[in-house]
Amino acid sequence: DAGITQSPRHKVTETGTPVTLRCHQTENHRYMYWYRQDPGHGLRLIHYSYGVKDTDKGEVSDGYSVSRSKTEDFLLTLESATSSQTSVYFCAISVNSAPNTGELFFGEGSRLTVL
Amino acid sequence: GENVEQHPSTLSVQEGDSAVIKCTYSDSASNYFPWYKQELGKGPQLIIDIRSNVGEKKDQRIAVTLNKTAKHFSLHITETQPEDSAVYFCAASKGTGFQKLVFGTGTRLLVSP
Which chain B residues are closer than 8 Å to A74 by Cβ? Predict the structure, then answer.
C-alpha cells in the first residue's frame, strides 16, 4: 500500500464550514496527488505536489487549497465546504524509484458529506 | 487538455466468459495508458499499463491493446472469475516526469458464477 494513510476516513460536515483532509506517507516519496471520485466522472485531479512547498493545480482545483510543509504530509483544505464537494477523496503517490513508470499508489479514500 | 472516454459503464458476464472494456483519448501526445481496478471500499490499484511504442501487452488473463492511429485502447480479461468483479478505470497521460493522469469514467464489471 506504499505506506499511505488518509484521515479522516469519513466526515460529515455542514455547508460553509472548513474541512481539512490529511494524507500521510511513510516512505519519503516526492510526488503526491489529491483526486476526487464522483459517479459519472471517474477520478479527477484536484492538486498535486512535486516536493515540499511545491504544489500546483489540477483540473478541478476551484474551492480547494493544499499545503505540503513536510515530505510526508499533503493536506487538502476546503475553506468553505459546499454540497458540490460531497465526494470520495483519494490521495495518491508515485514512487521515487520509478518516477516515469506512471504507477500511482492510492490511499483508501476519505468520504466527505457536506449537508 | 486530454479527454478520456470509457465504455461500457457497466458490464455483466458469466464466469469463464471474456470481458472487453474500451477507451478513447483525445490528445495524440499521450503516451502512457494504465488500467486500474478498484474493489469496493478501496483505492484503485494498477493492474496493467502500456506505452505508445507497444501495440499489445499481456499479463496472464489480462491484456491491453493500443491503436495509436485511432486513439483508442482496450482491456481484455479472459476466463473471468467472480473476483474480477470491480470497477475498472482507464487513464492516459503524456508521461513526462510525474504523472498527471486523466481517467475515464469507469466500468463496473460483474462476473456471475
Answer: none
